[in-house]
Please model this.
Amino acid sequence: MKKAIINGIVHTGEEINNDIIIIENGIIISVQKEIPNNIPLIDLKGDHISAGFIDIQINGGEQFYFSQTPTEEAIQDIHKTSLQYATTHTLPCLISSSKETILQGIETIRNYKAKYNNGVMGMHLEGPFLNPLKRGAHSINQVRKPTNSELEEIIRYGKDIIKVMTIAPECFTDEQLDMLLESGIVISAGHSTMTYKEAQYYFSKGIKLVTHLFNAMTQFGHREPGLVGATLENESVYAPVILDGAHCDYAAARLAYKLKQEKFFLISDAAFLGRKVSNFKWENFDAHLENGFYRNKEGNLAGASISMKEAVQNAFNHLNVSADEAIKMATCRVASAINMDNQLGKIKSGFPASFTTFNDNLSRIEALNYNQI
Model:
C-alpha cells in the first residue's frame, strides 16, 4: 500500500526541502510537491527526516559479539539494537579470526540475508591480515600474513557478502593486493605501520578508505606524516572517525573534518550498544566498561560503546557543523565510501524507505523504518 509522509523538513542528502515522500513496499516511490488523493498519511508534524543512518563497522548489539558468536541471533541483535539508535543499515564486523570462523560468518550472513529483507548489508571483515605491531585489541594468535590460497578462498566464498575488508597493505604482495582490489570488495587500510610514502603508494593502487582514522595507524609527525598525514592530504581517501571523545580528541576530529569535508564520516565501532554489557571475555580478547568506554586489561581501548545516534549528536555539538552536515556524516557520505551511493543514504526515488527523524538540535533522533512493515 502506498503511503505519503507529509509535514516534514526533508534532508535528501542533496538538499533540504518540504516535499512529500511517497513510499510503497519498503521503497521510496517519489519525492514530490503534491499530496496524492486517497492515500494514507504519515504526519511528521514539522520534524526533520533523512535517510536512515548507516554503520559500516559494528561488532555487537546489546547482547552478542558477532566475532564470538557468528550466528543469525547475533546479527539480529545488531540489527534490532541499531534500530533503537536510529541506524537502519549495518555491516556487522568480524574481527581477526580463524579461516573457519570467517567462512562461518560469511555463510551466516548469507543465510540471514536470504531470510530477512532488512538493513543488514553484508559483512565488514576487519583482519586477520593486519600488522601485529598495530593489532590493537585483536588477538595476536589470529593476526597473520595472507597466503594466496587463503585469500583466494575468502574472496571466492565471500565476495558477495564482504562489503568492506580492513587490511594492513604493507603485509601483502602486489599480487595479493591486486587480487583483493579486483574482487570488488572495498579495501580499507588500517591496523598498519605504513609510512606516508607507502600509504600514498597504496592509495594510488586503488585503496580509498581507512579504518578508524587516528587509531591503530602511524600518526602525523612533521618529518614523517604517517598514514594519518597521507589520509588527511589525499583528496580521494575517505576518513571515518569514532567520535566518542576517547578514540580521538574532538579537536583532532575538527581538524580532520576541515581537511576531509565530504570524505569525513562516522562509524560506531561499538563492541556492544547500550552499555548493558559491562564485562566481556573471549579467547585473548577482553573488555570492561570504564567511565563509559570499553578497555581491555592492559588499559587499551577495546572497541567503542557509542552508537551512530550519539556520534551524530557529538558531531553537531563538537565539530561546529549544521544538523544537516552531521546527518550527512551518517548517511550519504557513508554510502559513498562503500560505493553504494546509487542505492542508499538518500531520500530519493528507488531508495529504501528507511528513515531517521530528528528535531532541530538533534537532541531527539529516532528511526522511522518503513522498510520493515
The longest strand covers residues 87-95. The first helix runs from residue 72 to 84. The mean pLDDT is 95. The CA atoms of residues 172 and 370 lie 43 Å apart.
